[in-house]
Amino acid sequence: MDWKALSFIFAGPLHLGFFNVVMIAVGGVLIYLAIAKEYEPVLLIPIGAGAILANIPGAGMGVDLAAIMAGQQSEGIFHALYKAGIETELFPLLLFIGIGAMTDFGPLLANPGVVLVGAPAHHASDDDQSGTSHTHGLCGATGEQGGTRVLFPIVVILLTGLLAPKASPLIGTLMFGNLLRESGVVDRLAKAASNEIANITTIFLAITIGATMVGESFANLQTLAVLILGIVAFALDTVGGMLFGKLMYVWTRGRFNPLIGAAGISAFPMAARVVNRLGLEEDDDNFLLMHAMGANTAGQVASVLAAGALLALLVR
C-alpha cells in the first residue's frame, strides 16, 4: 500500500478543523437562504461560495485578515482580489457607479422632504424615512424634472465635497453613475455601468468577502462581538426610522407609508429592496422601491457625511 499516496489523498480531511467545518456550514446556509428563500441571492450565493472555498484545507483560497493586519504575506487568488479591490476600496466605488446608473431619483426630487426623515434615526447610526403605500401616492406624478435630474448629482457631489471631503469617493461615484443615466447622451456607458461593471464587481466583491470567513480567524469572540454590535446598530436604526415614519404617517394623514422608514439605513441599496419586497407581500400594488431608494439614499449620504466628518476630526 502506498502510504504516501494515501496521505496525500486524505491530507484535506485530516487538516479540516472544527472551525473550518463551522464556516463551511455557514456558507451552505447562506446559499440555502439565497436559493430557497431568495434572500439577496446576488450577494449571498457568492459570499457562501467564498466561505466554502476559503475553508478547504490546502487550497490556499482564504483571506486571513488577522495575518494581513499583522503584516504577514499571503498568497492565493482571493488574497490578490482583496488587496486589489477591497483594501484599496476599488470594488465598492465601482459598484456605487453601477448603483447610481440604476437608480431613479425622480421620487426623491418630486418630494425632497423625504430626505428630512433620515435625520432622527441617525442618533444611533443611519436610519430614516417615509413615503406612501403606493407609488403614485407619495410623490404624485414623478414626471420629468427637466434640468433638475442632471443638476441633482452635480449639486450633491459639490455639497458632499465641500461639507465632508472624505465622503466624496462613495457619494461622488454614486452620483457620477446617476449622471451617466440622467444625461441621456451616454446610454452605452450607463448600460455598461449598471450591467457589466456592476455584475462583475458584485461577484468579485462578494466572493472575496466570503473568502475572509476563514475558520479560527473568523469564528471567534471578537468577530462575534462586532457582528452583535452591527445587528444592534441596524436594529436601532430601523426602529428609529419606522417610528419617525409613523409620525410622518399621522402628520400627513396617511399619505406616508411608515415602512419606508426602514430603508433609511446605510445598507444601500439592499434596505430599499427589502422594504419593497415586504410592501409587495402585503399588497401587490404596493410599489415602494423608488420611494425607498430616496430614503435609502438619504441614509447613505447622511452616514457617509457623518463618517467623513468624524474622520476629518480624528486625523487632525
Poorly predicted sequence stretches spanning 5 or more consecutive residues: 119-144
Query: How do the SSEs run, as a string of H and E?
Result: HHHHHHHHHHHHHHHHH
- Give the structural class: mainly alpha
Average pLDDT number: 79
The number of domains is 1
Beta strand %:
under 5%
Shape: globular
Number of strands: 0
Instruction: Give the assembly state of these chains.
Output: single chain
Counting H and I runs of at least 4 residues, what is the number of helices?
17
Helix proportion of residues, in percent? 55-70%
Major sheet characteristics: none
User: Roughly how many Å apart are the termini?
Assistant: 68 Å
Radius of gyration: 22 Å
Report on the structure:
The structure is a single chain. With 316 residues, this protein is an all-alpha fold. 69% of the residues lie in helices and 0% in strands. Helix 7 packs across helix 13 and helix 16 (270-282) runs antiparallel to helix 17. The chain starts with a helix and ends with a helix.
